């Protein structure tokens, strides 16, 4: 039989394991709201599927927590969650950062009828521009300089509203990821909130924006990196992108 000392050691080990995120039965992970087809708030989406699959391969279960970018940062900083999924070290958050696992392809979208001449980010300085939340941090110093003194520049969390404002002609430019814009454009057309004839141009003036995931626990981060590497190798990563592209995205114009 196990002696009293042995029992105490076993109980102490169990307590340590249950208190560590690496051994949690369930991990609370932040996913950014308002970003379909990357994140739907029903537990699906490109990023949700990729992150869940990668972590499950390490024995973890994901509980999605949906929040706008700024609120997600605060929740992670306050250790209310175990990880967050669209982030860069430039955020300043103290965390165990993963390898880069996905990227956004941001464009400057404008109505074709406006006949704007946009060749680089400097051309956004005198236009009515709405960008995604924290765009100034993520789109590089040239963009930050271009919009710093622009009184008609603003950022918002709800990217459907961005697309809607542009397609109604209420702003000159919407800066957002191409997949997100195309998803919301098709949604707004289907709901008859905008005209199908509201044609657009996507100006390719930004480099791809790489993103990482971040975790409180190093082992969880390592498990995530291993899971992503395995998914890329065996084709599951690309299969997730193909699934959502076929289901939700209209043919690219």
Note down, in words, how this protein is organized:
- By secondary structure, the protein is α/β, with parallel strands linked by helices.
- It folds into 2 domains: 4-103 and 209-248, D-Maltodextrin-Binding Protein, domain 2 (3-Layer(aba) Sandwich); 106-203, 3-Layer(aba) Sandwich (D-Maltodextrin-Binding Protein, domain 2).
- It is 40% helix and 21% strand.
- It contains 9 helices and 11 strands.
- It has helices spanning 4-19, 46-56, 69-77, 135-138, 141-148, 159-167, 178-190, 218-234, 236-248; strands at residues 27-32, 62-67, 83-87, 96-97, 102-104, 106-111, 129-132, 153-156, 173-177, 200-203, 209-215.
- The strands form 2 sheets. Strands 1, 2, 3, 4, 5 and 11 form a 6-stranded mixed beta sheet that branches. Strands 8-7-9-6-10 form a 5-stranded mixed beta sheet.
- Helix 2 links the parallel strand 1 and strand 2 (62-67).
- Helix 2 crosses helix 8 (218-234).
- The longest helix has 17 residues, at 218-234.
- The model is unreliable at 14-22 (pLDDT under 50).
